[in-house]
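Re: that chain you flagged

S.,

Sorry for the slow reply, it's been a week of failed gels. I finally had a moment to sit down with the sequence you sent. For the record, here it is as I used it:
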Amino acid sequence: MTDLAMQEVFVVAMIVTLGGALLMGFPVAFTLSGVALLFALLGSSLDLFELVFVAALPNRIYGIMTNDLLIAVPLFVFMGVMLERSKLAEELLETMALVLGRVRAGLGLAVTLVGALLAASTGIVGATVVTMGLLSLPTMLKRGYAATVACGSICAAGTLGQIIPPSIVLILLGDQISAAYQQAQLAKGNFAPEPVSVADLFVGALLPGLCLVALYMAWQFTYATLYPKAMPSIPAAERDAMAGAMGARVAKVLVPPLLLIVMVLGSILVGLATPTEAAGVGAIGAMGLAAARGQLTLANLIAVMRSTTRVSAMVFVILIGAQLFSLVFRGFGGDEMVASFFTDLPGGVFTAMLLTMTVMFLLGFFLDFIEIVFVVVPIIGPALLMQDISPVWFAIMIAVNLQTSFLTPPFGFSLFYLRGVAPPEVQTIDIYKGVAPFVVVQLVMLGILATFPQLAIWLPKVVYG
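Prediction finished late last night. Pasting the structure tokens below so you have them in one place:
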């Protein structure tokens, strides 16, 4: 067997070993590093790999730690956790439930709208699902909602933080897609490629995110029309007793988070601030909202800092492990192998994208979105982006696809979050059945975005020319 054939065997073996280790439950960051080092040493002993590729790791780590964009990750995480501690979700849910209570499926629609608002304010899926599970699930069950549709609505609304900016997924994707696009353009001989920024992805995700919210609500309203007993409205007498000064209450609850959204997203979209600078503004704004609600205590601040540090450390350690895996993968010629594979596929770009989206969807059953972004995108991204695919559209397609990873059994994180706070009478199978229609809705949205790429491409062109 030739050295080239042996290298291809090593590439396949690396991917299989990594997938097997992750499925067995080994920590992602250390699995990435361990598998990479194991194959690097084995390949070097057989003269199939040059260890000079591994020697580039310190430079990669330095590049990660000095990347201004990635500073936005802990700042947005801080903002999200602080808003969750400020009891914002509780007030939003109570108010929106009263506003929409007269409508059939009103509580379900309220959960979806609050999920969208929290997504644009926080982007933290776990905090959103847990909060809405604690606050709205008992109420929905008490009002006669079927457990399946109540659980599905909460889980699906919680995942909106993955696609609606400011989203941690979009920030991480922005970094990885930008690197993959530059690599693809350099391979094509373009030594001055147009940069791909997180702001491009934020703007590109707005219309698909709003379309997904609309599809969720359309499904809930349709279900309530077909099965009115499964999603009843709140009785008029009860609504009137709870309403009070509704206009003032709505203004008091909605205006602060909307102002924060305008400050953070607006400053990015009009070019007044970078995502990192806007994240800093958001963190300060979240502290202000918490202080206004009397929640900016020392205990809360310590808890928020600990949670932020934990999440940020996880992201960066995984990113460092992914960099080492990527270096070893390229050292064996894996990037050229993947590029050749996608180029030779029958059907060209369509088949390549269909295969990529299918693989990512299936990986979402078992892996977290961070693992998929850091492992899969560096491998397949350059090969696909060499085929004149819009990097913004490609990134939004991935983001919508990865959103399903939070809902698909057996390892969907939203399912775990809700299971942990759901009442005993709600069975796990109820949660699984409830999220199934919303997974289908997300796949429909993915198909719409694939058919009409302008949903992701048009607005960035309008905003940034």
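What I noticed first: The two ends are 53 Å apart (CA to CA).

Talk soon,
D.
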